[in-house]
Amino acid sequence: MKKIILPFLIILLSPTTFAQKGDNIFGLQIKPIIPNKFIGEYERNFDSLPIFHSQSKQKLGYSFGMVMRHYFSDKIALETGINFTKRRYSLHYEVNEVGLQETQDLSVGYINYQIPVSALIFIKLSDKLHMNASGGVNFGFYPSAVSTSGVIDIENSFQFRGLRTEWIQFGANANFGFEYRTKKDGAFYLGATYNQPFSNTMQFTMAIERAGANTAVRDFISGSYLTIDFRYFLPKQKKKKE
């Protein structure tokens, strides 16, 4: 056990010259939202059998913005910023009524603005390479609802509507990544972040509008997702001598 703990403590306590207590650095980031079946909500069924079957699936989305980091020490920091995020979904429906059969795929996206606040811990792996883990909360702002439709025939159509559950929503985020630091060119970061809202973000409604009768199914979407993070931090500004 000592052979494992001792090298870890040496790495954790080793000095670094990129960031010191009280330093602030600024950067830009872009984060593709990666649809997958293992982390985050991938798909949801909306069925009113035997009339119709419909389904939503998460598609590739994106988030981008600016980030600011404040160092309490060379190993601990606080990070915040603001991001524009667009989640995208594919909508699939199948109508199975006698005399009315249709299959179609539609696409819809909804946006929010997000302010994350995270605490970070760094471990130095080499002179320029650092590993980090972080966790925190985020504040999301949802400006509007979304909707789309698909025409089946002159008297029948498929309708979708997504309604935000709240204008301001809260969630948790966890991150892991690696950072390559240079004094001259700044720092380059590659990592992954999981975002989990504390409550459902939207209510999706799938409906078939038919001549003389309408059928609708409603359910909530949590809006959780996984991103791959690319960040660039500007070099620190040299302090002017008085």
Quick overview of this protein structure:
This protein is 5% helix and 69% strand.
Please give a handful of descriptors for the protein shown.
242 residues, mainly beta, Porin, four-stranded antiparallel beta sheet, 69% strand
The proportion of residues in beta strands is over 45%
What are the secondary-structure elements, in order, as H or E? HEEEEEEEEEEEEE
Number of DSSP strands? Answer: 13
Mean pLDDT level: 83
**Which sheet architecture does the biggest sheet show?**
8 strands, antiparallel, barrel
Instruction: Kindly identify the CATH topology.
Output: Porin
What does it look like?
This protein has 242 residues and is mainly beta. The protein has a single domain (17-233), classed as Porin. It is 5% helix and 69% strand. The strands form two sheets. It has an eight-stranded antiparallel barrel. Strands 7-8-11-12 form a four-stranded antiparallel β-sheet, with no helix packed on it. The longest helix is centred in the first third of the chain and has 12 residues, at 2-13.
